[in-house]
Amino acid sequence: MRTIMHQVTHQLRNAVKRWVDRYLAGEPMHDRSSRPKSSPNKTNRSTTKRCVSLRMRLREGPVQLAARLGIAPSTVHRILTSARLNRLSHVDRATGEPIRRYEHPHPGTLIHVDVKRVGNIPDGGGWRYVGRPQGQKNRAATPGKAKNKWRGPKMGYAFVHTVIDDHSRVAYAEIHDNETATTATGVLHRAVEWFSDRSVTVERVLSDNGSAYRSHLWRATCEALAIKPKRTRPYRPQTNGKIERFHRTMADGWAYARCYQSEHERREALAT
Prior knowledge:
By secondary structure, this protein is of the alpha/beta class. The protein has ten helices and five strands, in the order ααααβααββαβαβαα.
């Protein structure tokens, strides 16, 4: 214990002397960085830029990039870590650009809306579980479907209208038989009321460039609800990536999770 106290006293004495010397010399008293003024062995900027460029374009690891650049893999890893590209999950698969993640500060600041289209299930089960031959027979035996002279009866689609809060990832979903502007605005009305019942006030809504979200009815509805509408960049679904990822989870956990005997059975299972 005496040895530890002696070391602490020595460190404090040195710190006080350092502050006094700086004060007498008219210099700032705050601690300075221990980084050296020059680093002769530092990787040059052109190599760093080329390393980042190759990572985004080729999506290779440190060993492969080190062989291309003629530097150590550890150096490549340090460069990628500084650029926040050390994991391939941080790089967009489609464009090779870094993924810019964001999250709004509190619930209601921004909600995402989108529509997930899934094929209706014939009575008796769809081809994913019963096979294509039996699936074709089930389609033919399902009543009330439109006829198609090339591929038998058309089962049509179910349109899942989803609203998800950007901050909390809490989602609201409804199933409809279309994706028209009238249906989309109705879902927005009910979703806003649903969030309001949970003390969340919606301020902005982000959608893609579908016809329903470009309609005059959508803009008028947003104005009536005091919500600012925003749209993603064309051909850039990553901007609305949170709801796209939720749709994938919903497909795995609900839409194709088990063999449903009818479309009605699957729609009834969405609530759970």
